[in-house]
Amino acid sequence: MHIGPEPDPEHQAPFPSNETPQDESQSSKISPATWIALGILVLTFAAYLQVMGFYFIRVDDPLYVTNNPSIQSGLNLKSIRYAFTTGDDGSYLPLVWLSHAACVSLFGDWAGGHHLVNLLFHAASSVLLFYFLKRLTKSMWPSAAVAILFALHPLHVESVAWVAERKDVLSTFFWILTSWAYVRYVEQPSKRRYLVMTVLFVLGLLSKSMLVTLPLTLLLFDVWPLRRLDRAGGSFTAHVKAFWPLVAEKLPLFALSLGAAAATLFTQSNVGAVAHLPLNYRVGNALISTTKYIEQTLWPFELSAFYPFRWTAFPLWKVAGSLAFILILSGACILNRRRRPYLAVGWFWYLITLLPVIGIIQVGSQAHADRYTYVPLIGIFIMLAWLGEELAVRWRFPRMLLLATSGALLGVLLTLTVAQVVVWRDNLTLFKNAIILDAENPLAIMNIGDEYFKRDQFQDAYTVYLKGVSLAPGMHISHFKIGQALEMLGRDAEAVPYYRNAKRLKPDMLTADQQLGRVLTRLGRFEEAAPFVQRVIEQGDLKQGLFDPVDIEASHIDWAIILASRNQLPGAIQVFESLLAMSANSPGLQLRVGQAYLRMGRPKEALPLVKRALERSPKDPEVFYSLGVVFTQLNQFPEAQHSLDQLKKVAPESPLFQRGISELQQAQAVAGRSVHREKVQVRPS
After folding, report:
1. Which of 21, 109, 271, 583 has a C-alpha 20 to 30 A away from that of 193?
2. Mean pLDDT across the stretch 17-28?
3. What is the C-alpha separation between 102 and 120, in angstroms, rounded?
4. Of 18, 17, 39, nearest to 30 (Cα)?
5. Is the pLDDT higher at 213 or at 310?
6. Is residue 395 within 8 Å of 24, Cβ to Cβ?
7. 421 contacts 50 by C-beta, under 8 angstroms
8. Which domains does the chain have, with CATH numbers?
9. Which residues contact 679 (CB under 8 A, 6 or more apart)?
């Protein structure tokens, strides 16, 4: 079946006749297209294979993999149920959750395996894109150029080298398959082929809602290279009349897109992902970002993991210049739509697919992000590839010059991409690079603080976090992290206002309730702590993906301490016994309950629990510290000193040692004064 007008010397039909060319179907030789596909695979793996030695990133990877209890259980009924019922990241992405759970089953906590799956999807999409465009346009070399640019452009590194961006590579894989299925449907319309296309589209939407613009891109293909409007004649009126049936043909797809967009917006609003910025800020940022991506495409240097949204007015000249650039280029593409239809199709592909992530509805605190270009840049690559082919033919470039130029460009791309991939090796490398590019990047600063925190350098972490808050006082997580650092420094009372700030900035932040309940309980401010602890107990089980069940157990322990403060000791003991009955062999739980008894001033009940925890965790510094506190409260000072000495052996840098020694010395001083008073009382007059 032939689609479109009869071929002529200036316009080649998008599809050949039903006869299969002899040189491809019957020849035993490997076709040029196969060699190109193999080349794309080799280049892609050459650039990205190093990710198998990389680590998880602290941003989003914990939500999707490392700290998500449902995903950490692997692919099973629990994770499947979770995948189809959760909206934890602000979107409905069941296929993404399932893919992460499957990776946990296959690779466990080995980050390299998770990275490898991202790479495999990216490589597969690159090859599929080549074959799809080749079939669609019957132009092999421009199709190869687009696929190579897609595979190797540095702007795409973020989507591939970041495990949390599995949604990008997975959804794009289904995007290309859906487009291919559409072309097959156009070749030979049937309900079966339409159903296949629709199913693939739904799978894409279940991977990422960015596919809501896909039906519009199919209309672009109708214009070129399918040229379905040309069958109606050459007049504008005829084209308009022919256009509406093509829209009607895609109404089921538009309906699915509308539903997915509405569901995503609703979910993001519910989880607080949508940032409520003034409209003029959002529009200005959208215009500037649209042109910024073009600049980064042509000059892919100084790429960062996070470009912070600046809370200052954009220069008017910058906004006006961006708007003028977009309008002029759009007008030029429309005027050239007959001679060079690929320019209009490529440009409007870029603009349309960028719409969901351009920031008119602002999600997060970034001004723009490299990952948002993963699909939109296909349009820019189409413009460059087909324009390059036209100029090469028109100006009759020597073959050797073309090969040398292409090879040089390929070498530059490969080098830049390899260098950008290295940036994503680990947290410290990633965010040091971000700070080098922007010394006032709040997210990068906060993550450097996290590295200090992870290394138990709490004072350094506190100092870095304070700088982050000064740069972005509206970031709730910055206040929360300062509270955590102060807690670890033993400055609980100072931590409370920072946790309250985090709670004020993000009212549904359950971890802020958790920490407020814990710190206030530790400070003896039991009635202040009670509502926070109750909220965690009531809502914690509903947020399994975002909240560690161990912390819910800790809140139950805090509640038992609050009950004891109200002289409801039987109720407190019942809570402890219930927890221990459910997790009798958990050293962590035994330690927590033992610590709770210590806070209630009942060291005798705490001693056997902490000792059992020590048997199961003989190198845990917190266990030795708690044992030292038990003996300190029992006035068994030599045993307390011995426990603290053991702590110093297993963790020489731990601040718990100094805290334990300080508490021991205070107890010894109090005990000494008590003995002195007793001697004075019995001395004869």
Report:
1. 21
2. 44
3. 15
4. 39
5. 213
6. no
7. yes
8. 31-423 (no CATH), 601-685 (1.25.40.10)
9. none
